[in-house]
């Protein structure tokens, strides 16, 4: 699985991608993450990519052409490596898009080998980019929740993490996929009892019973 991220701030991803499971998946070549900065695709000597919106109002809008060139660069990388067999999905990260969830992540991981994530900033990206790619590449608008963030970088990290978990061998043990087994949002470990400010906190008795059917019922009740 290859992730191609179109962003003005590629360094924002460094700390997350260099830690834990994602870092190991990159090291083991189970996934790959490449970045495409629209500033590298502008002719402006100051590398400027934003202008005032035609509609007026505060803020700036990212120009279409540098973003289009960045996406095309990502498309070229994906297609050339797979010799026309690439299964590429372009995702436009937007608070107004379709709600992202694990079901969507599973479907993406199953169908595609290259995911292009387009991260907006400021007041957004010129909407004509969507018109360029929606018809031929079926670009899809995706939201990670009913809220507005400063940019698309955090949503991109969420998608990379969630989709990567669905890639074979990324987690090592397939049973680690909580969404594919009976699991609970509440988990416990040793010690069985500890005391905090004079009060004892215990592990639920059912988890100590060894009765698998009752344990599974308890887990389902806690979902």
Question: What is the secondary structure topology, with strand pairs?
Answer:
Layout: E1 2-6, H1 14-17, H2 20-27, E2 32-36, E3 50-51, E4 61-62, H3 64-82, E5 88-99, H4 102-111, E6 114-118, H5 128-137, E7 140-143, H6 153-164, E8 193-196, E9 199-202, H7 212-221
Parallel strand pairs: 1-2, 1-6, 5-6, 5-7
Antiparallel strand pairs: 3-4, 8-9
- Rounded to the nearest angstrom, the radius of gyration is 22 Å
The percentage of residues in β strands lies in 15-25%
Helicity level: 25-40%
- Sketch the topology as an H/E string, one letter per element: EHHEEEHEHEHEHEEH
What is the global morphology? elongated
Distance between the termini: 30 Å
Task: Quickly give the structural class.
Answer: alpha/beta
Number of strands: 9
Average of the residue pLDDT scores: 88
The largest beta-sheet arranges its strands as 2-1-6-5-7
Our count of domains comes out at 2
Mind telling me the CATH class of the largest domain? Alpha Beta
And the CATH topology of the largest domain?
A: Alpha/beta knot
- The low-confidence runs, each spanning 5 or more residues with pLDDT under 50, are none
Q: How many helices?
A: 7
């Amino acid at each position: 699985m290859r992730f191609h991220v179109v962003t003005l701030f590629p360094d924002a991803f460094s700390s997350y991608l260099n830690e834990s499971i994602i870092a190991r998946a990159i090291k083991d070549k189970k996934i790959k993450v490449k970045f495409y900065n629209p500033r590298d695709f502008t002719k402006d000597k100051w590398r400027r990519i934003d202008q005032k919106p035609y509609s007026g109002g505060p803020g700036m809008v990212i120009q279409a052409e540098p973003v289009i060139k960045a996406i095309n660069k990502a498309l070229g990388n994906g297609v050339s490596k797979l010799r026309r067999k690439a299964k590429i999905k372009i995702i436009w990260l937007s608070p107004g898009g379709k709600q992202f969830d694990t079901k969507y992540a599973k479907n993406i991981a199953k169908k595609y080998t290259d995911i292009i994530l387009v991260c907006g900033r400021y007041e957004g990206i010129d909407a004509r980019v969507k018109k360029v790619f929606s018809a031929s590449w079926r670009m899809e608008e995706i939201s990670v929740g009913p809220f507005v963030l400063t940019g698309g970088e955090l949503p991109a990290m969420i998608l990379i993490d969630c989709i990567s978990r669905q890639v074979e061998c990324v987690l090592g043990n397939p049973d680690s996929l909580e969404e594919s087994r009976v699991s609970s949002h509440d988990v416990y470990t040793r010690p069985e009892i500890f005391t905090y400010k004079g009060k004892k906190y215990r592990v639920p008795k059912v988890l100590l019973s060894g009765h698998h059917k009752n344990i599974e019922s308890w887990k389902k009740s806690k979902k």
